[in-house]
């Protein structure tokens, strides 16, 4: 019994140690990305694997551009569409989470998440699209790290550069060139609104791009003037 108890204790300490080392690994990446752009992300790696299963020589469309070279229209559109309290919250929109939980209860399934831009960035950088309590817990820990180490400008800059915008398309520059054949700095308000409404399910909306997204884009467009961005 004593040996079993000792084994369980050692195993528990080992698991805690591994967990803390993993958090330190994540934290060190966030500190690095405060000054340098990511070369790749968890979502990029997952999508690359998917693409290369179908076509071994497939590549991703991903070009980092600094914050000032991303149209303010896109910044406003993404905040209006995804997280209108971005400037004010500290990583979590508790009111939005409560509304999402109530909506999910009414529907009897998960149809809303209430995630902020900071939470979405945490997921894109380090995690996967899968849904589990462990993943949501880890997402929350990473969100706190992001909000502690980075300012809002850098969080939005990272998000706009790494978020998925279609099959193998990552970041504002690649999206602007994929859908409009222009740079991210040149996006007008209507174009920005169309790109913003794709974010909840970019690979699905890529196939519906254009008039089928117009009504939703128009609603986002009407709110953009009230969106605060860093």
Task: Describe the protein in words.
The chain has 230 residues and is mostly helical. It folds into two domains: 1-36; 39-226, Penicillin binding protein transpeptidase fold, CATH 1.10.3810. Helices cover 61% and strands 2% of the residues. It has a two-stranded parallel ribbon with strand order 1-2. The mean pLDDT is 91.
* CATH fold node name of the largest domain: Penicillin binding protein transpeptidase fold
Number of helices, where a helix is a run of at least 4 consecutive DSSP H or I residues: 11
Write out the CATH superfamily name of the largest domain: Biosynthetic peptidoglycan transglycosylase-like
Which quaternary structure do these chains form? Answer: single chain
Strand/helix succession: HHEHHHHHEHHHH
| Uncertain stretches | none
Mean pLDDT: 91
Number of strand segments:
2
Report on the biggest sheet.
2 strands, parallel
Total domain count? 2
Overall shape:
globular
Helix content: 55-70%
Class by SSE composition? mainly alpha
Based on the structure given, which CATH architecture of the largest domain is correct?
Orthogonal Bundle
Q: Radius of gyration, rounded?
A: 19 Å
The first-to-last residue Cα distance is: 59 Å
CATH class of the largest domain: Mainly Alpha
Strand fraction: under 5%
Topology of helices and strands:
Blueprint: H1 2-33, H2 42-54, E1 61-62, H3 72-82, H4 94-107, H5 117-126, H6 133-149, H7 152-162, E2 169-170, H8 172-180, H9 189-196, H10 202-206, H11 214-223
Helix pairs in contact: 1-6, 3-9, 5-6, 5-7, 9-11
């Amino acid at each position: 019994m004593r040996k079993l108890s000792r084994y369980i204790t050692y195993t528990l300490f080992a698991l805690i140690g591994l967990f803390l080392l993993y958090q330190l690994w994540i934290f060190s990446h966030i500190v690095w990305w405060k000054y340098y752009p990511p070369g790749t992300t968890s979502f990029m790696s997952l999508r690359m694997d998917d693409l290369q299963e179908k076509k071994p020589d497939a590549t991703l469309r991903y070009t980092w551009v600094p914050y000032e070279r991303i149209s303010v229209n896109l910044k406003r559109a993404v905040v209006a569409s995804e997280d209108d309290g971005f400037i004010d919250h500290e990583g979590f929109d508790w009111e939005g989470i409560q509304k999402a939980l109530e909506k999910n209860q009414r529907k009897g399934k998960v149809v809303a998440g209430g995630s902020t831009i900071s939470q979405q960035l945490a997921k894109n950088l380090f995690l996967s699209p899968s849904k589990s309590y462990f993943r949501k817990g880890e997402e929350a820990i990473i969100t706190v790290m992001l909000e502690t180490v980075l300012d809002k400008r850098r969080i939005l800059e990272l998000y706009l550069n790494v978020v998925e915008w279609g099959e193998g398309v990552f970041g504002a520059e690649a999206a602007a060139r994929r859908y409009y054949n222009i740079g991210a700095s040149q996006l007008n308000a209507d174009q920005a609104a169309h790109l913003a409404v794709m974010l909840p399910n970019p690979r699905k909306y890529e196939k519906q791009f254009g008039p089928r997204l117009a009504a939703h884009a128009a609603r986002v467009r009407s709110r953009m003037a009230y969106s605060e961005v860093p």
